[in-house]
Write a structure and sequence with these properties.
globular, 15 helices, single chain, binds pyridoxal-5'-phosphate, seven-stranded mixed sheet
Length: 421
């Protein structure tokens, strides 16, 4: 595979951008090799600067669920841009997206739009603290909630891939208010609960240490414990929102959080985030209440329109089953060819998101995910890349299937995996 252009671009990028990237995992450090500079995408495929094409299972980390350059999104974005790209004033579109989200997500009665998942979580935490007048936050090892100070303690995603040095830039006085416990461990939660806990924040299905599912009773337990202590339960559904179902993970598991964070899919590929919850809580936000949060580009009309079209396309019967069928076929296919090759893997899957861990044990928390073989994943990743399959460049990230992936794509991917194994 000729990757000369990517090679040249990466050298130039490293000169002007730290590590050559605007988000760490893009640098391919965990898997080695030259990151591909992507020139364009269409449907389930992306094309690099050397005109190589790849079947894409990163899908902008799950944000692109309809496929790249989807016709409906492209057309509405073009039309919207013609009328101006930002006003810093109220627009009807924002209200329509808010209404759509409120009607879709069981735990959201009111919602505030922001510009990223990080911002959504940061604001949700402030709101929880303002509402409860408490300080502490409990989070889970391997869950990633964006890069705000209090959330980077033992976080997943890139923060997991790169480790957490002393020089991470977070004062101990801030870090002390975040308590981290293992995922799926209710006993550990009970041990650290007290009357100063403002909120427990959790990915209801974790997608940032690879995919790790909540065990039976885990989310129910969190709901019970937070209620008992008058703390808030925050679901970070930045990945799972509109991914696992139209109502997110909370709809599937039947657990209603106090605050929900959204991002990724709701922007249809544009920068966006949102946090919402019970009206009584949301009314603590300025200008109604005292919790201040603002944004120059919040509710940006282009992002909002792209999001609206995307959500409309997802509010159709059969859409989620369609993606799940393909995901199940791929997950099962990979398991089969791995077994044939005598390679131990564990596949964790729910709906259209899954991940492949090179290990012979179950993976139910971060330390188990970490114990999976990183060198084997790196080698697998590079073989797949050589065979035109673009996987997440870290074993601690999720693979995503969207509406553009076809049965033929899945078969091609299984054949590539068989070769790679
Ligand atoms: C991606 C992600 C975030 C951060 O969103 P950004 O838009 O990258 O800031 C937060 N929480 C979860 C669960 C995520 O997957």
């Amino acid at each position: 595979m000729n990757i000369q252009e990517s090679r040249i671009l990466f050298e130039k990028a490293k000169k002007y951008i730290p590590g050559g990237v605007n988000s760490p995992v893009r640098a391919f450090k965990a898997v080695g090799g030259i990151p591909r500079f992507i020139e364009r995408g269409k449907g389930a495929r992306i094309f690099d600067a050397d005109r190589n094409s790849y079947l894409d299972y990163v899908c902008s980390w799950g944000a692109i669920i309809l496929g790249h350059a989807e016709a409906g999104v492209v057309s509405v974005v073009k039309n919207t841009i013609e009328n101006g790209t930002s006003f810093g004033a109220v627009t009807a579109l924002e209200v329509e997206l808010a209404e759509t989200i409120v009607n879709a997500v069981p735990g959201i009665e009111q919602v505030r739009l922001v510009n990223s998942g990080t911002e959504a979580v940061m604001s949700a935490i402030r709101l929880a603290r303002g509402y409860t007048k408490r300080n502490r936050i409990i989070k889970f090892e391997g869950c990633y909630h964006g890069h705000a100070d209090s959330m980077l303690i033992k976080a997943g995603s890139g923060a997991a891939t790169f480790g957490i040095p002393d020089s991470m830039g977070i004062p101990a006085d801030i870090a002390k208010y975040t308590t981290v416990v293992p995922y799926n461990d209710l006993e550990a939660v009970r041990q650290v609960m007290d009357d100063d806990v403002a909120a427990i924040i959790v990915e209801p299905v974790c997608g940032n240490m690879g995919v790790v599912l909540p065990q039976k009773g885990f989310l129910e337990g969190l709901r019970e414990i937070t209620t008992q202590y008058n703390s808030l339960l925050i679901f970070d559904e930045v990945i799972t929102g509109f991914r696992l179902s139209y109502g997110g993970a909370q709809q599937i598991f039947g657990i209603i959080p106090d605050i929900t964070c959204l991002g990724k899919i709701i922007g249809g590929g544009f920068p966006i985030g949102a946090y919402g919850g019970k009206r009584e809580i949301m009314e603590y936000i300025s200008p109604v209440g005292g919790v201040y949060q603002a944004g120059t580009l919040s509710g940006n009309p282009v992002a909002v329109q792209a999001g609206l079209v995307t959500l409309k396309s997802l509010n159709i019967i059969g859409v989620y089953d369609f993606m799940e069928t393909h995901a199940a076929k791929l997950a099962n296919g990979i398991q089969k060819v791995a077994k044939k090759a005598g390679i131990a893997i564990t596949v964790n899957r729910i709906g259209s998101m899954f991940s492949v861990f090179f290990t012979d044990t179950v993976v139910t928390n971060y330390s188990m995910a970490q114990q999976s073989d990183s060198q084997r994943y790196a080698s697998f990743f590079n073989h797949m890349l050589d065979n035109a399959i673009y996987l997440p460049p870290s074993r601690l990230e999720a693979w995503f299937i969207g509406l553009a992936h076809t049965s033929e794509d899945i078969e091609e991917t299984i054949r590539a995996a068989e070769k790679a194994f």
